[in-house]
Amino acid sequence: MPPVETKPLRAGSAAKRSAILLAARDLFMTEGFERTSVDAVAAAAGVSKRTIYDYFGDKSTILLRVVESAAASLLASVTEAADEELGPVSEAPETLEASLIRFVARISDTTMGSDAYSSLRRLVSTEAAHLPVLRDQWDTREPETLLAEYFTTFERIGLLRLAKPLTAADHFGALTFRLLQDEADAPKARRHEIVADGVQAFLRAYRP
Amino acid sequence: MPPVETKPLRAGSAAKRSAILLAARDLFMTEGFERTSVDAVAAAAGVSKRTIYDYFGDKSTILLRVVESAAASLLASVTEAADEELGPVSEAPETLEASLIRFVARISDTTMGSDAYSSLRRLVSTEAAHLPVLRDQWDTREPETLLAEYFTTFERIGLLRLAKPLTAADHFGALTFRLLQDEADAPKARRHEIVADGVQAFLRAYRP
DNA sequence: GCTTAACTACACTGCACGGTGTAGTTTACT
DNA sequence: AGTAAACTACACCGTGCAGTGTAGTTAAGC
Question: Where is the HTH tetR-type domain (chains A, B) (predicted)?
Fold first, then answer.
């Protein structure tokens, strides 16, 4: 459990804090939280274990901070990709498919890529039984809400027909990101095929 | 790792073996593999830890057997539901939607329900890094292949239009089971809505 | 240069736990 | 009843590891 507030923690150096969180994130994703020792995080971050305890107090708190940071990073990534790929979509229907494909590809190819997202999702799901606040941090629905807003705009200019924008956003995510995550190790051509198939199915389902 | 074959294992009693696997399955799903002790499995199964080691040799082997058993159970469940709900589908398009909804609901409401499937999937995903054979046992693609065969039949009688049957099966699973798993704790009415929305989107995407 | 906070490198503690051995008890079969 | 396999209940061992304390070193600020 997170430390009682009476335990003094140190703010310390931003660079070291960042190194710890990055190292922890990588190890938690590849090894799982339980199988990752704090010693291993310390070694990977290039700091002493004593420092980690001085900064975070205990192991669970490291996980909380990792997930907080990842959720914020994901939202920023989705927001940027949407603004740049979906924002300029014009009234010409033939550009929507290409924009949606680029939107998915862009997110999948960033630091917060498909396998990273999939691993983090799994981590939250596994550990939420013991740290329920993790789920709150992760399942904000902010990315889906943002996407639903764009879809609503597309409906207004006649490109989509929606009954429930948020459901459409969920379906879009299921047809693209989710299936992509299942084949995170696939070659680039296969991954492009998955995205294209998913976007096309979505458009057939939601075109006027 | 699984025990070297020189270690003598005992077949023992089918009832005790079953009790061990059931207890292990429940605990692995709720607590995770790493956080579940063999002592806890023994207590939940009502056998001695010595017996567990006599039957299985080590902890990883328990996990292998649990996943084997679960994958077989899932396939049986999907096969039965498909045979009974999709098998009798006639040429009248209006019955297809209802059949697909019943097919999903039936699987989701069985022992191998949405939350159990989701937990097992997560377990395999987490542990496969250390026991790669787990993934082989789980990702057989047999349920998807079976579903794709039914979809191919529906195409022949004019109910669907497919380019790639297996991709359509993936899309169907993504739009229904996957989204249902995300809201495993939702009330029954919400779960029914998720299934109906997903089936309808699928049909819009794949109807001729 | 001096002071102090930050940090490292170790050692240590207590506990959990995978796995093993063994003696006594129970069960099944002849 | 006798025999042997199956099982239980414990104790034990070695290892890993979360978390803590402490002395020495380093870095930053005045």
Answer: 14-74
Question: CA–CA separation, B31 vs B41, rounded Å?
Answer: 11
Maximum Cα–Cα distance across chain B: 61
Other C-beta atoms closer than 10 Å to the C-beta of B4 total 7
CATH class of A67-206: mainly alpha
Residues of chain B with CATH 1.10.10.60: 1-57
Residue B109 binned pLDDT confidence (cut-offs 50, 70, 90): confident
Chunked into runs of 10 residues, chain A (208 residues) has average pLDDT values of 62 92 94 95 96 95 94 91 88 85 90 72 89 89 94 94 96 94 87 96 96
Dihedral sign for Cα atoms in the order A160, A143, A181, B25:
negative
Mutation target to probe the B interface, by most B beta carbons within 10 A, among A175, A181, A190 is A175
pLDDT at position B161 over 60: yes
Residues 139-168 of A with CB under 8 A from B: 164, 167
Q: What's the pLDDT tens digit per position in B5-39?
A: 557 788 889 999 999 999 999 999 999 999 999 99
Nucleotide nearest to B51 (CA to C1'): D7
Q: Do A35 and B34 touch (CB under 8 A)?
A: yes
Angle made by CA atoms A141, A84, A18, in degrees to the nearest 5:
60
Q: How many helices (H) and strands (E) does chain A have?
A: 11, 0
**At residue A186, what are phi and psi to the nearest 5 degrees?**
-70, 160
Helix (H, G, I), strand (E, B) or coil at A83: helix
Residue B128 near residue B63, CB atoms below 8 Å: no
* Structure-block tokens of residue A60: 């669970």
Looking only at Cα atoms, what is the longest distance across chain A? 61
